[in-house]
Amino acid sequence: DTSGTPWGHFGDPPGTPRESFGDTSGTPWGRSGGLELLRALLSRTLGLGGDRAEPVLDELSLAGVGRFIKSDRCKNIVCMVGAGISTSAGIPDFRSPGTGLYSNLQSYNLPYPEAIFEIGFFKKHPEPFFALARELYPGQFKPTVCHYFMRLLQDKGLLLRCYTQNIDTLERVAGLDPELLVEAHGTFFTSHCLRASCRQSYSLAWMRERIFSSLVPKCEKCQGLVKPDIVFFGENLPSRFFALLESTLLIIMGTSLQVQPFASLISRVPTNTPRLLINKEKTGQSDPLMSLMGFGGMDFDSDKAYRDVAWLGDCDSGCLALAELLGWKEELEELVQREHAAIDAKGGDRDGGIPQKPQGDEDKDGGSPKKSLGDEGKAQSEPKKGLGSKAKAEKDPKKPQGGDKDKAENDPEKSRGGQ
Ligand code: CNA
Predict the structure, then answer these.
(1) pLDDT (tens digit, 9 = 90+) per residue, 381-396?
(2) Residue 280 assigned to a binding site
(3) Fewest C-beta atoms under 10 Å: which of 254, 255, 302, 382?
(4) DSSP secondary structure string, 242-291?
(5) Segment 174-202, tens digit of pLDDT
(6) CA–CA distance, 150 with 397 (Å, rounded to integer)
(7) Where, by residue number, does Zn(2+) bind (predicted)?
(8) DSSP state of 228
């Protein structure tokens, strides 16, 4: 029980919302997690919609996953990633004891660590967030081996989606197609005026200038506070997040799986989809009560384990080990070298070579109002078809990629509250 210890590992001071994004506080599993739970309950008690799980891997090991990827049965892969994939680039995560941000925010005089990412606190005290942003500013870091492993999955037509909790934009720098990317907690890539009546959009370069001149960014039109489009506690997730996942393999990397509803994604893939965790520690295992009720988190070790594999260690080493099993190791190493050299050659480009999105008319609606539960339900059921055809389109190089619909769904401002 760490509640009441503001700087503890889980640091939930009394009265702080649970660690959940997207207006999900109040429900322990978050909104989508709650729906997932209901679905699982119905499937168990009434026998509705429960797929019968057939073990797919010939062995619960990295080698077993490697053989599965090489087989015809692995059609596509979804990656779910967190701050742990960027620590080797020099960006601290939240929870690693000692090095994580939560252990090192004392100098910002916060009432509790999470306050720095809470929208209510930010509106009153934006300075600590921008001081931290200066330290973590995207463009100062190079993507890691792990990022480029996902790029290889993409280049080989295997990546169905990458769900990231990270806000460092390194997936984009590594060349992941924005159409395959769901930046679940938003991005520094664009910024907006917080005033609902204004919602003026600003570019990464504009925000960078303010951050590095230590100015609190103010809107040029209305003098409102401008915030990067990262999702704070108490804000909504992009609607594309809620798409169903018809993937044949889930790879989870560098995340403590503590933040909902992101963590609930692990139970949104079909029940026979193998799930590989590459992380320093085992995460995502459900607590004993939930397990007793038959609700699954990850199950690596029990007698009933049939699809979950934990490879414990550094994400980069895990990706290299998997690449070796797939015969891609050299290709991966060459890709990393080539891309890093290209980034170095760009020298002082602090935007890390990320293509700049043109500033358009994206704010005409003045910021969409907070989505209702119904809206998200809709979002959940809509893109299923699109996902299947995306994987097909990827396999068929002649077929044009993506579409406006996906683009719109990935746009954080489409679902974020107009705060
Ligand atoms: P977290 O809760 O800090 O967990 C990180 C996990 O990764 C832990 O289980 C660590 O043990 C593990 N880990 C750390 N380094 C490595 C490594 N090199 N190899 C393997 N495992 C490693 O972070 P989560 O992403 O789970 O938490 C979600 C928060 C963190 C999101 O809201 C992010 O926005 C937020 N965050 C993002 C960044 C970033 O953009 N890079 C940085 C810090 C925090």
Answers:
(1) 222 222 223 333 333 3
(2) yes
(3) 302
(4) G-----SEEEEES----SBTGGGGGGSS-TTS-EEEEESS---PPPHHHH
(5) 999 998 999 888 888 889 999 999 999 99
(6) 18
(7) 193, 198, 219, 222
(8) E
86 in contact with ligand 1, CB cutoff 6 A: yes
Local structure of residue 132 (DSSP, 8 states): H
Return the closest-CA partner of residue 22 out of 372, 267, 363: 372
| CA–CA distance, 408 with 81 (Å, rounded to integer) | 22
Q: pLDDT for 142-157, tens place per residue?
A: 999 999 999 999 999 9
**What does pTM read for this prediction?**
0.74
Strand ranges across the sheet with 159-164:
181-183, 159-164, 77-81, 249-253, 275-279, 308-312
Q: 32-40+59-351: what CATH class?
A: alpha beta
Residue 227 DSSP SS3: strand
Nearest to 125 by CA among 225, 209, 26, 201: 225
Find out whether 151 and 48 touch, Cβ atoms under 8 Å.
Answer: no
Nearest-angstrom CA–CA distance, 324 and 157: 18
Report the distance separating Cα 152 and Cα 245, nearest Å.
Answer: 20
Can you give the length of the chain in residues?
A: 419
Q: How many Cα atoms within 13 Å fall on the side-chain side of residue 414?
A: 15
Where exactly are the structural domains of the chain? 32-40+59-351
The number of beta carbons lying within 10 Å of the beta carbon of residue 218 is 14
**CA separation, residue 311 to residues 63, 296, 316 (Å):** 10, 19, 12
Q: How far apart are CA 51 and CA 148, in angstroms?
A: 34
What's the token pair of residue 63? 């080698």
Ligand 1 nearest atom to the CA of residue 278, by list position: 20
Q: Which residues have C-beta within 8 Å of that of residue 292, sequence separation ≥ 6? A: none
| Residue 9 designated active-site | no
Query: How many CA atoms lie less than 13 Å away from 417 in the CB half-sphere?
Result: 14
**Which residue from 143, 144, 148, 173 is spatially nearest to 159, judged by alpha carbons?**
148
Q: Residue 83: CB within 6 Å of ligand 1? A: yes
| Residue 193 known to bind ligand | yes
Which residues fall within 8 angstroms of residue 361, CB to CB, at 6 or more apart? none
Whole-angstrom distance, CA of residue 124 vs CA of residue 117: 12
Amino acid at 357: K
Expressed in angstroms and rounded, the spacing between residue 389 Cα and the centre of ligand 1 is 31
Nearest to 170 by CA among 142, 197, 193: 142
CA angle, 29 as apex, 160 and 238 as ends, to 5°? 45
